[in-house]
Design a protein that fits this description.
The chain is α+β, with helices and mostly antiparallel strands. The chain folds into two domains: 2-133, no CATH class; 138-209, Alpha-Beta Plaits, CATH 3.30.70.260. The chain is built from seven helices and six strands. It has helices at residues 2-25, 32-54, 60-75, 88-105, 109-134, 150-162, 189-200, and strands at residues 79-81, 84-86, 138-146, 166-175, 178-187, 205-209. A hairpin with a 2-residue loop joins strand 4 and strand 5 (178-187). The longest helix is centred in the middle third of the chain and has 26 residues, at 109-134. It is elongated and about 80 Å long. The relative contact order is 0.11. The mean pLDDT is 82.
């Protein structure tokens, strides 16, 4: 009994810590210590629910609340900045760490280790995949608000074409005494960042968005 408990504690700390280190290495919320505590806590609550079952109580009462309770922790890592939402991956990771802790508590060590390995594979492999995706050219629209001058529009077009970006379509409208230029082009994520930086350095350009 004591040996089994030591194994569960150590495994919860190892697997929770491994997942937490990945989050902390990439400077994300809920790092090493947080994931260790979540995994260890979920494991302990699961063991207690089993003990309650042996004593004649409902073994699912405590375990069921782990899923609900960990949701509050995950929600704390979700942030919204305008239209951009960040922290969803960390919140999902917290939820899965709790599930791994429960698996350890029930003695399903193989399932716990396999799922932890799968999470690390997704987290680390996904970043490399995204880097490859950023190198692929795609068609998108760039919207530029600038001074009402055709010479400025021509300068914008030349700067974009200078980066070997293929312009498919351009359209100019005038609103509030400013030109609103929409440009459909084929570019990579790196090329878009370069063009954005160069265009925003022009004093005639007021805003740029994708």
């Amino acid at each position: 009994m004591v040996l089994e408990m030591i194994i569960k504690i150590c495994l919860a700390l190892i697997l929770g810590g491994a997942l937490g280190m990945e989050r902390q290495y990439h400077d994300k919320p809920a790092g090493f210590a947080t994931n260790c505590l979540i995994c260890l806590g979920a494991m302990l609550f699961t063991v207690l629910s089993e003990i309650m079952g042996f004593a004649g109580g409902d073994p699912g009462r405590i375990a069921a609340q782990i899923v609900t309770g960990v949701g509050f922790i995950g929600a704390g890592s979700i942030l919204r900045d305008g239209n951009k939402i960040s922290g969803l991956t960390t919140a999902a990771g917290v939820w899965l760490v709790a599930a791994i802790g429960m698996a350890i508590g029930y003695g399903e060590y193989v399932w716990a280790a396999a799922c932890a390995g799968a999470i690390l594979l997704v987290q680390l492999g996904l970043r490399r995949t995204l880097k490859l995706v950023e190198m692929i050219k795609r068609y998108d629209t760039i919207y530029v608000v600038c001074d009402p001058s055709w010479q400025v529009v021509e300068q914008i077009t030349k700067k974009i074409e200078k980066q070997n970006i293929h312009l498919l379509k351009s359209e100019v409208t005038k609103q509030d005494n400013l030109f609103h230029v929409s440009l459909v082009a084929s570019f990579t994520a790196h090329e878009f960042q370069t063009v954005t930086r160069e265009l925003l350095e022009m004093k005639e350009v007021h805003s740029l968005y994708q």
